[in-house]
């Protein structure tokens, strides 16, 4: 990309070649009105209000690309007339007497109407009857809709559900006189608006992953949260900037708080908002916000019991839903009292990172989700992407749809959501345990064979064989036929027979024997027939490659080998590698804590069961604050330390109180922020000086980036071979959560309350003759569980999965580390 | 256009309407003060006042309002304790829960709880004005788009608790009173300005 200079309204502005004029203007603080355009998505051209004049020609700023030396004027009398007419049209049958609309003033229709200065109405059309529709978590009021289609755009270009479409409005035609009299673009915009409405693709109900991003981007109050509807006005809320507590994406969001009611002056979170131009939330982030530990008071006896327990204990077990500061407290307690710290999920991740570092010589992976957003070829290995880290899925989808990208998705479980993201994505549903084959395939396809270790090159060559295959080809063949024709002799008038030779071209199928290269790795990852051609098509003109690897690899019995392979991929291919940490702060915990494998005899559990349990879920021996009641930092997938703030008050004891009683001496938890280990890449920065915003140019200014440290590199780049017969072919069960759930905290929020079970696809349900709600006995070598059958319409294939969000179901006990386990499922 | 008021010299001068009042200077010495006390005590000014009272009493022409038996009518723009009104025809509450009164209230004493009701309308489940903080400025009535909250005519606020005036049910016109036609409209704060129809530009309608 070349840096170029353009002139906007006489100001000279630096931008990238090929950048849209609108984005260039926004990044430089120049205002161009725009309604339908979404940063990071494709221009919709529905509103036409972003008209500008570039080099004397009227263009739309949202889809006209900046060229060097371009001279742009944002307003001319003609453009002003168009804008005024456009806003008047939007105000037809949408009078701005907005008594009860949930947008309550945060309305772009109002803003632009006032900005443009509409004080009277010229146009009119008969209104149509458009009843409001309830789509579950989302409520659509077509009467308020201005058809900017931002919801459709974000759902397709960012989220990847493509769950919304336009449908016929059934309106009268616009009066002919308007066509003559009104400005051209305004008429075109009205003509389009007048024909359409928003509707779900699946008929009457919305069939999607319920991220609610459509409600976030809606400029008016047409798409709103059903739960929030009519409960409050936007201006009553105080917005608490925070980091989402549910997964490792670490999305920035704000908790909107207000007093609960007239009776109860305590604050309550009413909704979650996001900077939708720069960050997209999933449904768990948007709807799973009220997981706070309520009505907690300081119970001295419980606190004393906790201190006693800590004095007695030799082990602290915890989950990664804690802040970096709390992780540091635990680590310092370990250093002082020799506790063993048990967090299996973070420990496996750390072991994976360490094994990766041995080969790569870097403490952290090189990629992040921003790079995925910018890539044009994205590969995911070892992660149920849509539920492990929805934002990674959004990034992949965004890359596929915006950068004309293509992608590969390696996972045993078939995911229709992934399949629907793009035509240019191939799902390779390999057998469990075949993740290494996928990694080898990456090296084979993309590795720089000249630079790679010779062992590896010859090992990869071993998978290739020349094979003679019979190919059917269509060949043009010339056939000469003798045709007898009856012709009337013109002279005599008598019919005569004439013989004529005619040459025809006939398509003929020919079998041909061809020598082709057969890649044995393709069959190991269950690549479909003709995958070689598909891949060649996908890879045409691709420049920016991204690989995401997930938790299936960290828990893999050969995790160490997988990590080394990942490091080799990063080293010898053009791919950036991003690792998806399992939980909100897995990366932070892995970097800060020195974790142990074996627990001792007496365990204090923090958010997990122990002999003495500290719990933010309110079900332990001593209450702890949940992540929306704490300030501190979380380390996200982008290797970024993100600050989060306390949205709600908390009356009980916090971990730091225990630490203080045990002899650590920081007054507040955030006093630990500048003490986070520099050796692990953290910085010496006070919590209160951490920034948390996006700039107009879309740059994320939040917390700080971890420093990637150089680590001792061993010359040994050897990797062990993949066990080609190791793929599990028996029935397996997977350890994953359904859409909208991550942990007991998501399930504790009132909109996402759910009880778990075994999640099966429609086909598995049918082939076993089960019904939804049946109780089944799920048995692995490690144990058995009795759970109910739940249909998950967002998976396909024969693999069922067990969740971790429901504390009533101890799914982990059935698994031996690895996320897949052989299983027998019997109906009871 | 910038408007500039013409300057009027209001300083005291020979020409102006203002003048210095001729006030005797205060006594400074003890003796002078003593003389002033004696002079005032024996001048009989007290009896002048007593005479006025007796003269008026004998006339039996009393101007005093016999409160609480008698009450003066209050001006339409008087701002007494708030009332919530109902729609005359349907009996529904006029309040739509827009929250503008809550927002505009400069002493931040109005709060409301709203929810979506079974008819998909915004329902105000509870409404409260903290009269301990209310300064009766009238902004709430003025901003109300539905003429729902008004300043009523109830200025007698004697009660054991201020809370007795601020519960929604106490402010809202009871249905039986509405049916009996006893809800009154207030021409004061928040009411439509006479002739405002003429000031509105009509929106074209395609019907």
Question: How would you describe what is shown here?
Answer:
The complex is a heterodimer of chains A (828) and B (207). Chain A has 828 residues and is an alpha/beta fold. In chain A, strand 6 and strand 7 form a beta hairpin. Chain A has 25 helices and 37 strands. Chain A folds into 4 domains: 76-214, no CATH class; 300-356 and 592-705, no CATH class; 357-579, Dimethylsulfoxide Reductase, domain 2 (3-Layer(aba) Sandwich), CATH 3.40.228.10; 732-827, Barwin-like endoglucanases. Chain B has helices at residues 30-41, 45-59, 100-104, 139-143, 168-171, 175-179, 196-199, and strands spanning 82-84, 110-116, 122-129, 149-151. In chain B, strands 1-4 form a two-stranded antiparallel ribbon. In chain B, strand 2 and strand 3 (122-129) form a beta hairpin. The radius of gyration of chain B is 28 Å and the shape is elongated.
Distinctive features:
heterodimer; A: 828 residues; alpha/beta; Dimethylsulfoxide Reductase, domain 2; 4 domains; 5-stranded mixed sheet; 5-stranded parallel sheet; 25 helices; 37 strands; globular; B: 207 residues; alpha+beta; Alpha-Beta Plaits; two-stranded antiparallel sheet; 4 strands
Put the structure in a nutshell.
Chain A is of the alpha/beta class and 828 residues long. Helices cover 26% and strands 25% of the residues of chain A.
CATH class of the domain at 82-190 in chain B: Alpha Beta
Share of helical residues of chain B: 10-25%
Distance between the termini of chain A: 63 Å
User: Biggest sheet of chain B, strands in spatial order?
Assistant: 1-4
Beta strand % of chain B: 5-15%
Number of strands of chain B: 4
Structural class of chain B: alpha+beta
Low-confidence parts of chain A lasting 5 or more residues at pLDDT below 50? none
Average pLDDT, all residues of chain B? 87
